[in-house]
Design goal:
CATH architecture of chain A: Roll
Number of helices of chain B: 10
Structural class of chain A: alpha/beta
CATH topology of chain A: Flavocytochrome B2, Chain A, domain 1
Shape of chain A: globular
Distance between the termini of chain B: 43 Å
Number of domains of chain B: 2
Number of strands of chain B: 9
CATH class of the largest domain in chain B: Alpha Beta
Radius of gyration of chain B: 20 Å
CATH superfamily of chain A: Cytochrome b5-like heme/steroid binding domain
Helix content of chain B: 25-40%
Number of strands of chain A: 7
Number of domains of chain A: 1
CATH architecture of the largest domain in chain B: 3-Layer(aba) Sandwich
Radius of gyration of chain A: 16 Å
Oligomer: heterotrimer
Chains: A alpha/beta (157), B alpha/beta (301), C alpha+beta (458)
Largest sheet of chain A: 5 strands, mixed
CATH superfamily of the largest domain in chain B: NADH:ubiquinone oxidoreductase-like, 20kDa subunit
Strand content of chain A: 5-15%
Distance between the termini of chain A: 27 Å
Chain lengths: 157, 301, 458
């Protein structure tokens, strides 16, 4: 990953995080959960950018950021119909063919891209559905906004 | 159909878009006639590719190729069309250096073995590689236009595993290269870009150096079959009139004006021919746009 | 002591080529035709989805892309054991015919005419570099006019192609089963109307023009014969109800015509830039070209319009530069009349597409005569992906390298030619252009030629 792309992505994430923080301060939003989820995702994206940049440039960070998973968030996890956990092997079945929907995992969340316009033939710029595409997403897309538009179907374990 | 022509049946919006090229070109003609403009030199360099872009250029209409060489520019060189051959031809090519010339390049630059996989001529008994020609001419041209997918980003010439290490022209040159991806490049995209350059200079480009006047919206956003997509009515084989998303259509990720401009004098276009878009005008073609045709893709609930 | 001359680039062809000729006493005593570009299509195709080959292989060539979509589709149908309907064949062959028309018009007027006709030198593109222009001014001016008018006509041939094929170059319509779209009545009448204009131009301008040139350059009836072996894989043939409209798979050699046998094709690479493993080897000592050497019964053959016109009995005047050029012009007229017959037999609104599935494991081959001659695609599918792909193009036949002491087809045609002025060897370019070279087609070759014989149709 190029340095200027990395900086662009970081900048973008910071902007998104600031927006989320503003929303939280304003106390106007009924669905705080949604803002917090987005904030959480943006921080995850930052983490992924750092990992991807350091890996692709063969740099070593003195203190690699630890993936912080909020225990409170997990406890307050609303029960959503159809939400389930997927292992990588299970995820592989969901390649969008033979009657199976097309699912992809990013940042530990599994999304349904079966009807997503950018995923014709369950493929997207050379990538196939049924896989964990966290790194690929980090290398191409700035910010978690795209993820917010995708229907969630579960988490990757 | 008697008494009606294709032109009569076009919607005014479409007609406007297709006339952009023609109106720009008319202004040039007037300016040249009124001596406000000097005819610039145009060099057309073919590199490692199929030479399909010059064939596509010959398919241009209003303006057409004759107009291009008689009214718009001094067309200096093309391997496919030039009368001279051998050293006379190659001399004509390199003699353009020192003049004010626009360089149009089609085909990718082959890097393997210092360019020896694509020799475009011999000068003074020594082979001239495509790589060398780009280096010699590229920095000296007033504008460089990469015509077609291969010159823009490697295209099919660079398809995995890229046996001859082909790259797009920008990888070779430090200066800006205007990119017209497409396989091939539509004659209007080239003519319109050239007309803009002749009149005003560099056209407004997006962040990948594609002229915004052609490459600003996805095919999906202007597709006549969009209502089928939105209602989830998908074709399960070629030859149907419904949305071909489930056949692998790359319209949603391809930024180009095919739905309004169409092809070959506006008679048809891939989706109009009941076959999906294969993303030929998008970076990443062909590898990132495959598979082109898929059956057995699941429809959503 | 022969003097060696080199022509590089050979312009007004498709792709990049060098011709080397040794001249002694104003005659060519030896020659080499060298293809100078390579991309490696056969390697690129490995691992891709078989259906994608129909679109991918078109990018081998910009002026004959339809040819590759045809051969690829036929190879896939062969591998799938699928027989298209006759309507599908008619529709597909109409698209194929349009490509013939476009190519022959452009080859005659844009590629060939500047050798014999002085175009306006105020346009730098047309600056002449020799003095052998013999046409009187009025004829020359007429041909200049036809050169420019032909631009509209060849463009309309591609427009015709796009009506059924979506776009040209690199059409979308040709596919398994026939074509993707349906021929509605309005499209059919559009095709007929454009074809009418093209046919009129061929008859009223193109054919008279080639004969005018033949009149003033009649020695070219005796230049560039070569071996005189002709070959065709057949095209516009074997229809259930219409029979053979053009030519069957036939071979002409030593005054005899025999049926063509695909198993007799071999391909050598002795003087081409490939090592024993068929990897590109640009350092190989005696190699001089990227083009291999296809052989039929170990003999070099010529393919193209002259071969077809001869084998079908339409034109048997002779084998030479001028005969090749005239045959190509005649063929344009012949193809136009064939397209007319196919259109007449169309049933409007027939849909020929189905849901196809990729075979998991299969082999197939598609052999068809196309714009420049005989074209073949051979493929293997394994695990539903392309595991092998080989292409032998007409230009590989015509521009082949030598094997042993046997020169390639075009090389042999150049040898023996007079060269009046060694500083302006116009004869050589004229000879090679009569073959309508397409080097972008000829030089993607990559894999072991011996495998052809082992590819049997299942």
């Amino acid at each position: 990953m190029q340095l200027n792309l990395f900086l662009d992505f970081i900048n973008n994430s910071i902007k998104e995080i600031n927006t989320d923080i503003e929303k939280l301060y304003s106390n106007k939003y009924n669905n705080m959960r949604k803002v917090l989820d987005h904030l959480n995702n943006e921080v995850l994206m930052l983490d992924n950018y750092i990992n991807y940049f350091s890996n692709s440039n063969q740099l070593r960070i003195s203190e690699p950021p630890e993936l912080y998973i909020s225990t409170i968030a997990q406890q307050v996890q609303p029960v959503i119909n159809g939400m389930k956990t997927f292992t990588l092997e299970e995820l592989a079945k969901y390649d969008g063919k033979d009657g199976n929907p097309a699912y992809v995992a990013v940042n530990g969340v599994v999304y349904d891209v079966t009807n997503n316009a950018a995923w014709a033939a369950a493929t997207h710029f050379g990538l196939s559905a049924g896989k964990d595409l966290t790194n690929q997403f980090a290398s191409c897309h700035a910010g978690a906004n795209i993820l917010n538009m995708l229907p969630k179907v579960g988490t990757l374990v | 159909m008697i008494g009606l022509s294709w032109e009569d049946l076009r919607c005014p919006y479409q007609e406007n878009r297709s006339k952009t090229t023609a109106s720009l070109v008319d202004r040039i003609k007037n300016d040249i006639t009124n001596r406000r403009l000097q005819k610039k030199n145009l060099v057309w360099l073919e590199l490692n590719g199929c030479s399909g872009n010059i064939i596509s250029l010959l398919n241009g209409q209003n303006p057409d190729f004759q107009y291009l060489i008689t009214q718009m520019t001094n067309f200096i060189y093309s391997n496919s069309l030039i009368t001279a051959e051998g050293s006379n031809a190659i001399d004509q090519l390199f003699n353009v250096i020192g003049s004010d010339f626009i360089l149009a390049i089609e085909g990718a630059v082959s890097l393997k073995d210092n360019g020896k996989y694509n020799i475009i001529g011999k000068k003074n008994g020594k082979a001239v590689t495509g790589l060398e020609a780009v280096n010699k001419l590229g920095e000296k041209a007033s504008y460089v236009i990469a015509v077609g997918a291969c010159a823009s980003h490697g295209g099919v010439s660079a398809a995995r595993p890229n046996p001859t290490e082909c790259v797009g022209v920008q990888n070779i040159l430090k200066r800006k290269v205007i990119k017209l991806p497409g396989c091939p490049c539509h004659p209007d995209w080239f003519m319109g870009t050239l007309a803009y350059i002749l009149l005003y200079g560099e056209p407004p480009l997006d962040n990948r150096d594609r002229p915004l006047m052609f490459y600003s919206k996805t095919i999906h956003d202007r597709c006549p079959r969009r209502s089928y997509f939105d209602r989830g009515i998908f074709a399960s084989k070629l030859g149907e009139e419904t949305c071909m998303f489930k056949m692998g259509c790359r319209g949603p990720v391809t930024l180009i004006d095919c739905p309004v401009r169409q092809w070959n004098g506006h008679v048809n276009w891939p989706i109009g021919d009941d076959s999906p878009c294969i993303g030929c005008a998008q970076f990443g073609f062909p590898d990132a746009m495959e598979p082109f045709i898929s059956y057995n893709i699941t429809r959503g609930g | 002591m022969p003097e060696r001359i080199t022509i590089n680039p050979v312009t007004r062809i498709s792709g990049f080529m060098e011709i080397e000729a040794d001249i002694a006493s104003n005659y060519v005593v030896d020659s080499k035709t060298k293809g100078l570009m390579f991309r490696g299509f056969e390697k690129m195709l490995l691992g891709r989805s078989p259906f994608d080959a129909v679109y991918f292989t078109q990018r081998i060539c910009g002026i004959c892309s339809t040819a590759h979509s045809m051969a690829s589709t036929l190879a896939l149908e062969n591998a799938m054991n699928f027989v298209p309907s006759e309507q599908g064949r008619y529709l597909r062959d109409i698209i194929h015919g349009c490509e013939f028309l476009q190519n022959h018009l452009r080859h005659f007027f844009q590629y060939t005419i500047p050798d014999f006709v002085k175009l306006p030198e105020e346009y730098p593109l047309f600056k002449v570099d020799h003095k052998d222009y013999r046409l009187p001014k009025n004829l020359n001016d007429k041909m200049v006019k036809d050169y420019f008018e032909s631009l509209d006509i060849s463009r309309s041939a591609h427009q015709m192609l796009a009506i059924l094929g979506g776009k040209a170059p690199h059409n979308h319509g040709v596919f398994i089963g026939g074509i993707t779209s349906q021929a509605t009545i309005d499209k059919i009448i559009s095709l007929k109307s454009i074809l009418d204009d093209i046919e009129r131009f061929i008859n009223e301008k193109m054919i008279p023009d080639v004969y005018e040139i033949a009149n003033y350059y009649s020695e070219y009836y005796h230049i560039g014969r070569g071996y005189g072996n002709l070959l065709s894989y057949g095209c516009f043939n074997n229809y259930q109800d219409l029979g053979t409209l053009y030519v069957n798979p036939l071979v002409y050699s030593n005054n005899t015509i025999t049926v063509f046998n695909p198993d007799e094709i071999t391909q050598e690479n002795e003087y081409a830039y490939y090592d024993n493993n068929n990897e590109p080897d640009i350092q190989k000592p005696q190699a001089y070209s990227w083009i291999k050497a296809p052989r039929y019964n170990n003999v070099p053959y010529e393919v193209g319009p002259l071969a077809r016109q001869w084998l079908s009995g339409n034109y048997r005047h002779g084998i030479s530069v001028m005969d090749r050029t005239i045959a190509r012009v005649f063929e344009a007229g012949k193809i136009a009349s064939i397209i007319k017959i196919l259109i007449q037999n169309l049933i409007p609104n027939v849909s020929v597409q189905h849901e196809y599935s990729t075979p998991v494991k299969s082999v197939g081959r598609g052999l068809i005569d196309t714009t420049r001659g005989a074209l073949g695609h051979w493929l293997s599918i394994d695990n539903s992906k392309i595991s092998f792909y080989q292409i032998i193009t007409p230009s590989a036949w015509n521009l082949s390298t030598q094997t042993g002491n046997i020169k390639g087809t075009a090389e042999q045609a150049i040898i023996g030619s007079p060269v009046k002025d060694i500083n302006a060897p116009v004869e050589i370019g004229r000879i090679i252009r009569s073959f309508d070279p397409c080097v972008s087609c000829a030089t993607h070759v990559y894999t072991d030629g011996k495998l052809i014989n082992s590819i049997q149709v299942v």
